[in-house]
Amino acid sequence: MKDALALEDRSLELQGADRVHCLFSGTRIVRASEGSNKDAEQTSGAGLAASQVPATPNGGCLVFVARTGFASSQGQLLQMIEFSQDKVSGDTKEVIIALLILLGFALVAAGYVLKVGLEKGDKTPHELLIKCVLILTAVVPKQLPIQTAMAVNTALMALSRAGVYCTEPYRVPLAGKLTHCLFDKTGTLTTDTLVPVGVVNAGSQPEQDHPPKVKVSDAEAAAALVLAACHSLVQVDGKLTGDPIEVAALQGVGWSYDSQEEVATPAPTTDLPDGSTGSASSRAGIKRARILQRFHFASQLQRMAVIAEVAVSDNAILNLNMEGQAGNYVLVKGSPEALKPLLAANAAPRWYDRSHLDLAERGLRVLALAYRHLPAGQEKLTREEAERELLFAGFIAFECLVRKDSGLVVGALQESDHKVIMVTGDSPLTALHIARTCGISHPHLPGLLLSLKAGQVLPEWVVATGDRCGDCFPVTVDGMDKLASEYALMTTGEALDAAVAAEPGIWAKVDEIRVFARMTPQGKAKVIEELQKQSRHVLMCGDGGNDVGALKQADAGLALLAGYGNVNTADNNDIDSPSEKVDNVPLEKQAEEALNKQDAELAKRNRRAAKDRQKFLWEKQKELAELQKQWLEEEMQARAKNGETGVFSQVGAMKTSMGRYTEELKRVMKEYDKTHGNVYDATDKEEAAKKNPAAALEEASGGLPMVRPGDASIAAPFTSKAPSVKNCVDLIRQGRCTLLSALQQQQIMMLNCIINAYVLSALSLEGSRTSERQLMASSWLLTTASLAFTYASPCDRMHPVRPLRSLFHPAVFCSMLGQAVIHLFCMVAAVKMARAAMEEDSPERQQGWSGPSLKDVSDFWKRERARRRGLIEQEEEEDWTTYALNMWQQPFLPNLMNTVVFLVETAQTVAILFVNYKGQPWMKGVVENRALFLSVVVVAGSVAAAAWEFQPQLNALIHLSPFPNDQFRWRVMGLVGMTLVGTFIWDRFCVFLFAKDIFKAMVDSAKKTTFRADIVPIFVTVLKVAGVFLVLGTGNLLMAGLAFWMYRRHSQESDE
């Protein structure tokens, strides 16, 4: 609820004291009413009465727009999407340094070409400068922008298929560096639906240490009055709207509320939500409660209050010490810690602390209730005047169900060596219970709370649960490690601030704390900021609202959409899960396997649901098509009675009937989605609907909500539309894969540029070049390998060892330099071999080989250039088909130099892809990436086949010159083998030398390779490809169509 703003002599605080007067992005106005003079007079501290504010023409609210255009939240979002100036990668400096290194190689190669070319004198300075420019421009390949964006775009598509949407793509690789994962509680690890499970009445026997928790419907009159009148609810279309906890409380006590009159009455006109413990009844003696003044909830105060006029009968009793009487009452609710100091002397029973702590330890959210009767005439009070000398009315407990896969996700993150922490605004003990349930904290470790008592400056560690409850320990930085091994450390935001003020070194050990409770939005963001200062990379997962600052501050912020109710909380018997658990916490190394099984089961349900939905749609379309004919006849008869005939009347009737058909189809499918759209809970939707139709429609809430500008989750760079935190695992997996893809593409870019620089210089000096046919042949062969290399997919298991993430890590940089040396050595040796064989008096010529010499090649190109210069004036403009044919038919003199360089360079390109593909354990291995593996094998085999001239006609087609003899051929194949095997051994040696943990992880993953799981699918893929070519080779389209139909049917049966 938002209140009117009073004019005061101070600055407007949009995020502070005046927040209750502001409409923010994501707010939906459900009802608005114009202010009145009476409202203004009752507003404490009002400077300008409503009478001095101009009236609105239609009786609505008068608002002042604080931000417009791109300054508004949606404008900032659109600006970020359309005109983002943010950094596009986290390694910009590394890319710049890498390009400078490549520029150095290119300058050396260009200088060498210029120097040797001038010494030879066979080329003009103009031709030499052109060659140098070509070498320099090749240092930054034309595919660099595409390569740098390809990995991120591939990740975005994969995340989108998983239901995760991203507004800041550059953060995807950052997700691969995460070390800490922070989770909110309500709406994230648990559902956002609060169910009232009971109250503790103030009239409980004072000698009891653990007073009984009774049904909400059995709440005493004072507690019911606070719950019914102390809220900020509004009524829209006959339905109460507002804070879910306030709606649940009002329904729990069975009161009704008229927001127009702001009057609450104890008439049981509302229905209990699913899971509530009883039905409310009228409170004897209390007639109504009308809200006079409202002090809205403030997160820093942890409470809200109202002043209400209560009408009671003579026999009404509001507390044990005083007979009920009509008049004005202050009604307050809030956290037990916040309300206790406001109670009157001796008003709090001695079981006050033990009772609410016991409820909190069971994972319940507890609110304390209090009230005070005001003397006659005291109606206009400040908040400080109202919230004092209160009488205790009781506690009310709410429960949020834990999402069934939260424990699996937390377990998977811990198995992969991520530190998992909870940051929440709830009480410490409530948060500790959920942390134990989900596995964030060990279930048997007692809780140790950093507590700041009233009047203290320095906080202290206090044992909050277990046999040693109440024991205290001093706060020291050095002692936190030992305490963390014996206790589950917890803290509140206030205590943490005090501890840091006294001991700033606490921030260095802040990740030892498992639960951060009673945290403000600024406090959550501060914790993440301090972790980042320690070079930690942080994931924040929350449901928006109070998590906005933390979601923005985190390296990867994942927001969950709200509105799913209690979806994804039921126990599914058909999903396999670890058989042995400790307090619902999966055992070591079982969580991620169970999570993968659950994902597979959900995928099956999605496919089954989509198939059932399509079948239902077809049936309804047939049914409505018959009805449409009847509607068309009725519409035409109605128009005929009104005298409307002719073509336009028929067209209008058809349009009307078609509109009715469309609306009816939409309505039917919407109802179907509401009933059958929930695939997370394996309950029978029809049975659920029979037992409780309203609950079935409420819980199975149809299609998943879509991300829209204005949602609270837009603050996060990532937004999940699933009612689960499992997308955190998907994000980390994809982030690691993207990080490695970008790294290996940078390695490939550098190695290819170094090789290309030398090849261009070598061929330029020898007067040769690569033919168009060779370029097309190599491109065809390498395209599949390059695409498979780019579209690498992550593994389905997160490894505890982090992947390499820097191009200048010794294991990567030294490997890259060594590979460059090996490749250049092989290329230099190949050029020397070819040059020696092409000399006029070479041994190969003496043995009868008669291939073109270097002079022949140089003379050929001179003649071609002369011919082109003479004909260039007479050539006519060509269309693209003629141009393509001319490219294939360009004059070229096949020669040994060109052939050797082409084969060795192609082999080196294959070696670069094969060696620098990181693979397991962070992405699919080279054997699992069957497209990459087969394409690499085919290219390597093609190089060998071309060297041994298995098909001389094919060699001639791509301008390859025959080798002089087998000895020369073996020497070339030896260089090919050295460039493949040598670079592989050197790369793995560098990883072993500089990153032993990564080398061990790669070896362990390689040991898991099996013939059936990894090798057999390769042969199956080969047979599929061969079958496709065989069927297409027959030229029979009928057979091709039949084969495709059989394949589709087999795939569908396999999915089912």
UniProtKB/TrEMBL annotation:
GO terms for molecular function: ATP binding; ATPase-coupled monoatomic cation transmembrane transporter activity; metal ion binding; P-type transmembrane transporter activity. One of its GO terms (cellular component) is membrane. It is found in: Membrane. It comes from the Eukaryota. Keywords: ATP-binding, Magnesium, Membrane, Metal-binding, Nucleotide-binding, Translocase, Transmembrane, Transmembrane helix. Residues 261-282 are annotated as: Disordered. The chain crosses the membrane at residues 95-114, 807-831, 929-948, 968-994, 1015-1047. Its main location: membrane. Pfam families: Hydrolase (PF00702). It is a multi-pass membrane protein. This is PDR2 protein. It comes from Symbiodinium pilosum.
